[in-house]
Amino acid sequence: MSKRLYGLFQFIFCVSILFSFAPQQAKASHAVGADLTYVCLGGNNYRFFFTLYRDCAGIAVSSSYTIQGTSTCGGNVSITVNLDSTREIPHTCSTVVTKCVNIASTYMGIEANYYHGDITLPSVCNYWTFGMSPAICNRNAAINDLTPNGSTYCLYVQATLNNAAVQCNNSPTFTNMPVAFLCANNIQYFNHGAYDPDGDSLAFTMYTPHSDAVSDVQYIAGLSGTQPVSYNFPDSTRFNTSTGDIRIVANAAQITVLAVRADEYRNGVLIGSVERDIQIIVETCTDNPPTLSGINGTINFVYTACANAPFCFTIKSADIDNNDTTVITWNGGIPSGTFTTTHTKRDTAHF
Predict the structure, then answer these.
(1) pLDDT tens-place string over residues 217-248
(2) I need a surface site. Which of 33, 222, 243, 254 has the fewest CB within 10 A?
(3) By three-state DSSP, how is residue 276 classified?
């Protein structure tokens, strides 16, 4: 069995094993997760990127969606984002056929659908809000940590912009998918691969996912937006507001949702924010997840380096299951970096 390990400086541990799910009713449901970000094309010209993650057992996505923008200074805009491309998110061994390929398959398949659209903002304002209009309906029917069920709710994400403080600003962005396959009763981390193209400071907030612009989803008794998985102890989900990292320990197989907002500051002034809606699939794994070391085989995952100077380190993988092979990949989150692996039974990576 091949096990894959993903991550950047703080790592996500995902086991590439065969996750099997019961057949799902469509109920016009398909939305798994979403990201909404933007880049400045010069002046008040902006390009918005919307990524919608779909359960292949649900309905098809639309060829376009609408983003409604409003400002506290008055005025509004409407942005149409059109579908550019679609690809399946790999989460099983390469020989497994998912529902994205064959709807009769017993294995969940999830695809990413990429959209973009351009707009010229008519004015500057200290608070623009951009949100999906209408919300994406409905959420995945497989979600079982919401009441009365997952497909009761829609999915809504928004972004904000202060183009009075900064005329041409690029939003924060994410390099890791907002979908995670985790193992129950294991300590595992989810990292967004978040960064800001302009080098602005980021702060993160974990919030209850939105169903539309004015309402949120409701969890089953005992769960919440900050504790979205069932657990054996109160702080099973821990959130780092500086990095956005989420530590999760779920006590049973389940499918849940959570949401994270990245706020962007320049010189202490809030200049924008973006939201992402995330689905977590927890399964009862039949073997043990692999592990990764920190920098150069140590337990240290943080390092301070000098600007304009080379920095290299090694990451080692381990696994207590002797017959398994580990594979390390990364999200390409640092464009100027290089990443190579040894492709041995216990893979080692060099950054």
Answers:
(1) 999 999 999 999 998 888 889 999 999 999 99
(2) 222
(3) strand
